[in-house]
Amino acid sequence: MIALQANKKLDLVSLASIPLIMTLGNSMLIPVLPEMERQLKIGSLQVSMIITVYSVVAIFLIPVAGYMSDQYGRKKIIIPSLIITAIGGLVSGLAAWFLKDSYWVILIGRLLQGIGAAGAFPIVLPLVGDMFKSDDDVSQGLGIIETANTFGKVLSPILGATLALVVWYLPFLSIPVFCLVSVVLVAWLVKVPRRADQKR
């Protein structure tokens, strides 16, 4: 078991970056919402949609992403999903930066982020199950993934507020950077089993 964990340590660290980034992508914006409301000159319902649209889209698309990962492979869904998440953050950030009336474009960016989130974090869980053969190793791997998710929940308000001190839309622009790091880690370090060996 120890040797197996050593062999898979980099894989798990790379995969753990995904729930961390997905949590940051949503929760990091929560402390910035009052400033968004002022800057965009919108109401509380409109500003709450910036958070809600991300989650609602992800919820509906998670089963689709799961099915596609069974058909085409886990990494073939995870990596494009991270790229879509990055594009969504870039769209929202650039809209806030350059457009005068940017609210609806920001929502489109958040919609893209939700689509990407559906194919990223949820697919990590079955991938961990694919990577290990013993139940103990699967449980330990899932524990590491959940720890990263929890750490993201703790870190996100601090990081979001800190970035917003520079400029209020910087949390949007930070997402593409985080996603790029995760794409590189997953692409180069995560070794997935053959599709025939994957659990559906």
Describe the structure.
This protein is an all-alpha fold. It is 84% helix and 0% strand. It is built from eight helices and no strands. The chain has helices spanning 2-27, 33-40, 44-72, 74-98, 103-118, 121-131, 135-166, 170-189. Helix 3 runs antiparallel to helix 4 (74-98), helix 3 packs parallel to helix 5 (103-118) and helix 4 packs antiparallel against helix 5 (103-118). The longest helix has 32 residues, at 135-166. The radius of gyration is 17 Å and the shape is elongated. The model has no long low-confidence stretch (mean pLDDT 92).
Cα end-to-end separation: 24 Å
Low-confidence stretches: none
Helix/strand order, N-terminal first: HHHHHHHH
Radius of gyration: 17 Å
Q: Tell me about the biggest sheet?
A: none
Strand content: under 5%
Category from helices, strands and their pairing = mainly alpha
Number of helices: 8
